[in-house]
Design goal:
The chain is about 45% helix and about 20% strand. It is an alpha/beta fold. Its cofactor is NAD(+); Co(2+); Zn(2+).
Length: about 375
């Protein structure tokens, strides 16, 4: 698999993609001339699988290591968890030249990056993603943060890693549900950026498990998704323009996560629901065709992802929640809406009435008004 460069005005970095490469992490970091002290941040399950290999690789390369574990789950993505990371950094005398290594999925990556951005006003940060969602999306681009009780990722910073080290073999221990969640972000890239990727996914008979996807398509998924993310971030590092398209499906998706207390859906599942909803809004506004919306929804369903807003969630609650979305500008919510497979537009003209109209015809399971 090829390496990919995230080309930025400052702090460009490499996405290194290679099977069985976790054992080479220390050697890769050694080439970056980082400080000797490293804290590996993970959750207990992932660390149980890969912590020993990670630590051995780092120590073989001459790094002094310690570790910090955060319980798995979006419900632990808050400032209290960050405080405990700071405590570990303080006890182990981590310095400005030290490195925080995120060994885990998107939640671990977001929290590790935010910790690195704020400890001593910024220390080195390396991403070692272990979930498909983190590999294709969360580990690339420098978005870090934690949740506020009133909304997802409202507290955070843009802070780029020094390296993203992707070892696809780590996906072998990923739960099927988490694999499917990652596929939501892959489908997102197909809708917003890469029509050929979308078509390849459409033509593949089964997308619901790693085994059904197979090595050849997996390589395509990883490289094309990472390249798409790198291309967009390279044009707009801090989301002042085109980078907002990466939020396709996230506006209503984040609201669904928040309104279910981050317990009913994992992130990718909520994004899938949000993409279906965004597609319906785009059809209602005449931006794309019902046929294209049906193609998107069929691909999401083929992946085994949910497509419906739970019926117990009121549309009025969604409308209220999205007012706190990070993408609100001058009091208006910006939606990312498709205009064709592979192209989207950014608009702040989606009114509450349009959202209600888009949801109303689809019956049970799409929220109640």
């Amino acid at each position: 698999m090829p390496n990919i460069t995230v080309d930025l005005p400052q702090d460009s970095y490499k996405i290194a993609i290679a099977p069985d490469s976790l054992s080479q992490l220390g050697a890769m970091m050694q080439q970056l001339n980082l400080g000797k002290k490293v804290v590996v941040i993970s959750n207990p399950e992932i660390f149980g699988h890969y912590g020993a290999t990670c630590i051995e690789s780092l120590e073989t390369a001459g790094f002094e290591t310690c570790s910090h574990l955060i319980p798995a789950g979006e419900e632990y993505k808050h400032l209290q968890s960050i405080q405990k990371v700071y405590d570990t950094a303080l006890v182990n005398h981590l310095e400005r030249s030290s490195t925080f290594v995120a060994l885990g999925g998107g939640v671990i990556g977001d929290m590790t990056g935010f910790s690195a951005a704020t400890w001593l006003r910024g220390v080195n940060f390396v991403q070692v993603p272990t979930s498909l969602l983190a590999i294709v999306d969360a580990s690339v681009g420098g978005k870090t943060g934690v949740n506020h009780p009133q909304g997802k990722n409202l507290i955070g910073a843009f802070y780029q890693p020094k390296l993203v080290a992707i070892d696809p073999t780590l996906l072998k221990t990923l739960l099927p549900r988490e694999f499917r969640a990652g596929m939501a972000e892959v489908i997102k890239y197909g809708v917003i950026w890469d029509k050929d990727l979308f078509t390849k996914l459409e033509h593949h008979p089964h997308l619901d498990t790693l085994e059904n996807v197979g090595d050849e398509l997996l390589e395509t998924i990883i490289t094309r998704s990472c390249q798409a993310k790198a291309d967009v971030v390279g044009q707009d590092e801090k989301e002042s323009g085109i980078r907002a398209i990466l939020n396709y499906g996230h506006t209503i998706g984040h609201a669904v996560e928040s309104l279910t207390n981050y317990k009913q859906f994992v992130h990718g599942e909520a994004v899938a629901i949000g993409m279906v909803a965004a597609g319906k809004i785009a059809v209602t506004m005449g931006l794309w065709t019902q046929e294209e919306a049906d193609r998107q929804d069929a691909l999401i369903a083929k992946t085994g992802l949910p497509t419906d807003i739970p019926s117990e969630i009121a549309i009025e609650d969604i409308l209220e929640t999205i007012k706190s979305d990070k993408k609100v500008k001058a009091g208006k919510v910006r939606f990312i809406l498709p205009t064709s497979i592979g192209k989207v537009t950014i608009t702040d003209t989606v009114t509450p009435e349009i959202i209600k109209q888009a949801m109303k015809p689809y019956g049970r399971g799409l929220g109640k008004s």
